[in-house]
Amino acid sequence: VQLVESGGGLAQPGGSLRLSCVASGFRMGLYPIGWFRQAPGKEREGVACISSDELTYYPDSAKGRFTIARDNAANSVYLQMSSLKPEDSAVYYCAGRPGNVATANASGYGIWGQGTQVTVSS
Asked: Is residue 66 very low, low, confident or very high in pLDDT (cuts 50, 70, 90)?
């Protein structure tokens, strides 16, 4: 059972990045998936989550700029990020949890990827 993120990198302020999270060993579409980020010296925070029936939730920091979506055929979840700000710089992780409720609270998520670095800088 594994999650692997990709798509991070350097973006300019106002730019966009698309992160991918691919699962192996389980059917991702059956579980809630969340995207989280952690910057140095800060707590891990949720930025988007999606339930198994594709209900989504975004905190205010991501609302209107980030979009989470599934591709069940590819066993993947994506995070499209636009209007990026320097404060979006962090390591981004995808995570899966049991049940059906998607939440931006990291507790309860038992499967985590290794993370992908996003840096927003001019």
From this structure: very high
